């Protein structure tokens, strides 16, 4: 490369440049020198992710082999986006050869995804079967439930925690690396009496997973962190990478920190970036301590770079967001400023109810589009995935295409799961959750028969033969034979990937027609699944990646929209992390929604909800509207049980912050119904004064 052509650095401000160039000295031409640890801690929109992308480009430009860079992002989508950013920067500044290097950044993805890859590679060394399959949350809950029943937990006492709660407790213990009793006392006090039973249940759960060669999400991190902690293995994996870069570090948990320390014990080559004010995953045991304590983990301590200029939002949006976060009880203070001035404050829009909210948002989105702002530059954000229901209906009626992030995933639908279970069972015949699911598709096969068949398969060296030899009841005979044949084919690799999937689809279609009323739509989904499958090199990789990070649900029944089509983004706030749009709408700015709990939230939980609103607001570049429905039912827990009440404006925007916002009502019909709780109160006060005046 021509070192003089480094004008891609010219765009950066001084602090960004410090971070990008940290320890990289083009003059020294010594690629073996790797700098000490680096932390970039800075507010939203200050260019953290951008700085990370520039650093990767800079490393490539200075001769670092892309295969020796490990890039850890929050989602697979973020990893893809990062590679694209690097490619773009490299292309503009350094030309095609440099851009081509970016496609060599093979080691980029989530901790879970990268973990799965490393574990598979090292499986034999750590006593795992290299053909292990991965359980998603639903599979894990199914397995947990199976064991709950086997152990008679729920029959002994009806109050025993439900399968989902059991799994959450288990997951928390693993991810936070805390004793069970501590987790019960602090997070699940109402389950604290079940300590001994839960401990035994979890032991049985772990044993079942091992016997079946399955790993759940938590295992991917847990096994990986244990692997890294073995010095010889940690070093062996760590040596493959000269540089390890992590985005959104504030949302990592104890296990993820252990993995990083195992990879890079002295921190050399390690760079993490994040914002403590945006930490929103403590419910998954993420801890903001990771980022706050990062510098002192190393000796000498990590270099810290802070960024202060926000390049994303207008000053008015920033003022409002800063005001919201400034009321937080604890934070690492940052002063963000922007050069992007605007006369327009963010708005608080009062509407009657959710139906009006949906109509309002659609109307505004269309107005924006009329004015030249494509749908893709707009997004609607909400606290919980099911909050977008009425809007989705309205969008569909008005023919506005949209993609939903963080919602019910395409892969969570029953028919897609059926097909994937067949593939998974073929990949790993010990996987009982997959096996049960598949066998019970066959008419005449119930749990008992399936259980016996799975035992026979697990006991045999040749799973295909064992399945063929198994005698189900007479009613299932023919279907069983057909399935056994399919299974043997898949086991033997008789078809090349992704033809495997077509073969499964053909076998499955008659069962699908039996099982579902809306079969045509579901068949279309399966065709879509085949398209998705063709972009993966193997069945194993397809299953791993899809289980870990499924594609997003879409409005289009055929699945993922074409890249150059224009569509609106609907997203939970959690899934909107790290992204930005010109216009952002936040739904249900109501207490009981943000924060999601009216009265029961602990102070820590309430603080996390405040940060969540901050994350939502800071996604906006030019326009931000928070919609507040007047009639939005929220649940209030009282001594006499749950009560449904109308919510009022979120407590995170108290009256003192109102000057930061422009308030309006929709539809505008002055003089009729009062439009906000405050106004309603004023009405009443005035009336009282009038009476007093005359009386
Ligand atoms: P978040 O905390 O939300 O993840 P971030 O700190 O990662 O935000 P980025 O997404 O990297 O911020 O950057 C925000 C926007 O600012 C992007 O559009 C980016 O291109 C732009 N940007 C970053 N640095 C600069 C710069 N030096 N000059 C101009 N634009 C910049
Ligand atoms: Mg970012």
Automatic annotation (TrEMBL):
Keywords: ATP-binding, Helicase, Hydrolase, Isomerase, Nucleotide-binding. GO terms for cellular component: cytosol. It catalyses: Couples ATP hydrolysis with the unwinding of duplex DNA by translocating in the 3'-5' direction; ATP + H2O = ADP + phosphate + H(+). Pfam families: UvrD-helicase, UvrD_C. The keyword Isomerase applies. Its EC number is 5.6.2.4. The keyword Nucleotide-binding applies. Signal peptide: none annotated. One of its GO terms (molecular function) is hydrolase activity. ATP binds at residues 42-49. It is an enzyme of class 5 (isomerase). CDD domains: DEXQc_UvrD. One of its GO terms (biological process) is recombinational repair. Residues 315-578 form the UvrD-like helicase C-terminal domain. Residues 21-314 form the UvrD-like helicase ATP-binding domain. PANTHER family: DNA 3'-5' HELICASE, UVRD / RECB / PCRA DNA HELICASE FAMILY MEMBER. Belongs to the helicase family. UvrD subfamily. This is DNA 3'-5' helicase. The gene is pcrA.
């Amino acid at each position: 490369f021509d070192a003089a052509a480094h004008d891609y650095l010219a765009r950066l401000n001084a602090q960004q440049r410090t971070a990008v160039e940290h320890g990289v000295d083009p003059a020294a031409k010594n690629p073996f020198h790797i700098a000490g640890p680096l932390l970039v801690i800075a507010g939203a929109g200050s260019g953290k992710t951008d700085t990370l992308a520039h650093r990767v480009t800079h490393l490539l430009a200075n001769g670092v082999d892309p295969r020796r860079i490990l890039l850890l992002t929050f989602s697979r989508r973020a990893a893809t986006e990062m590679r694209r950013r690097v490619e773009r920067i490299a292309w503009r500044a350094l030309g095609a050869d440099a851009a081509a290097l970016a496609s060599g950044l093979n080691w980029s993805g989530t901790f879970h995804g990268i973990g799965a890859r490393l574990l598979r590679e090292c499986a034999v060394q750590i006593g795992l079967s290299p053909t292990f399959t991965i359980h998603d949350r639903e599979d894990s809950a199914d397995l947990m439930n199976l064991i709950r029943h086997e152990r008679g937990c729920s029959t002994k006492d009806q109050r025993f925690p439900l399968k989902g709660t059991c799994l959450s407790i288990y997951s928390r213990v693993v991810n936070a690396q805390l004793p069970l009793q501590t987790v019960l006392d602090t997070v699940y006090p109402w389950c604290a009496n079940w300590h001994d039973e839960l401990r035994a249940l979890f032991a049985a759960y772990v044993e079942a997973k091992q016997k079946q060669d399955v790993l759940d999400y938590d295992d991917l991190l847990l096994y990986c962190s244990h692997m890294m902690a073995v010095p010889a293995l940690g070093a062996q994996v760590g040596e493959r990478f000269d540089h390890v870069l992590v985005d959104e570090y504030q949302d990592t948990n104890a296990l993820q920190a252990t993995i990083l320390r195992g990879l890079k014990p002295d921190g050399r080559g390690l760079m993490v970036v994040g914002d403590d004010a945006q930490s929103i995953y403590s419910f998954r045991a993420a801890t903001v301590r990771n980022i706050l304590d990062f510098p002192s983990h190393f000796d000498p301590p990590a270099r810290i770079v802070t960024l202060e200029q926000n390049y994303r939002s207008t000053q008015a949006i920033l003022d409002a967001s800063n005001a919201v976060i400034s009321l937080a009880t604890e934070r690492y203070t940052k002063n963000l400023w922007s050069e992007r001035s605007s006369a327009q404050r963010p708005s608080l829009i009062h509407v009657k109810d959710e139906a009006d909210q949906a109509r309002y948002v659609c109307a505004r989105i269309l107005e924006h589009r009329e004015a030249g702002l494509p749908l893709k530059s707009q997004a609607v954000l909400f606290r919980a995935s099911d909050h977008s229901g009425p809007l989705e209906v309205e969008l569909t009626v008005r023919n506005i295409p949209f993609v939903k992030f963080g919602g019910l995933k395409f892969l969570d639908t029953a028919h897609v799961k059926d097909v994937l279970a067949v593939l998974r069972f073929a990949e790993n015949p010990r996987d009982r959750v997959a096996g049960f699911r598949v066998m019970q598709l066959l008419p005449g096969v119930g749990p008992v028969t399936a259980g016996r068949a799975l035992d026979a398969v697990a006991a045999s060296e040749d799973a295909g033969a064992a399945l063929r030899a198994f005698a189900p009841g007479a009613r299932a005979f023919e279907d069983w034979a057909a399935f056994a044949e399919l299974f043997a084919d898949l086991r033997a690799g008789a078809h090349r990937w992704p033809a495997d999937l077509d073969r499964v689809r053909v076998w499955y279609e008659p069962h699908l027609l039996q099982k579902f009323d809306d079969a045509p739509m579901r068949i279309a989904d399966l065709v879509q699944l085949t398209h998705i499958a063709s972009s993966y090199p193997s069945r194993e990789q397809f299953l791993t990646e899809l289980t870990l990070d499924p594609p997003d649900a879409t409005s289009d029944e055929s699945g993922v929209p074409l890249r150059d089509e224009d569509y609106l983004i609907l997203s939970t706030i959690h899934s909107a992390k790290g992204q930005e749009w010109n216009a952002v709408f936040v739904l249900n700015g109501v207490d009981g929604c943000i924060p999601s709990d009216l009265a029961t939230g602990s102070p820590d939980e309430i603080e996390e909800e405040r940060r969540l609103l901050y994350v939502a607001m800071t996604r906006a570049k030019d326009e931000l509207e928070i919609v507040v429905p007047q009639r939005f039912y929220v649940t209030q827990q009282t001594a006499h049980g749950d009560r449904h009440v109308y919510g009022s404006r979120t407590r995170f925007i108290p009256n003192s912050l109102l000057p930061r916002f422009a308030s309006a009502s929709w539809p505008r019909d002055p003089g009729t119904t009062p439009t906000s709780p405050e106004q309603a109160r004023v009405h009443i006060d005035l009336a009282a004064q009038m009476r007093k005046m005359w009386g």
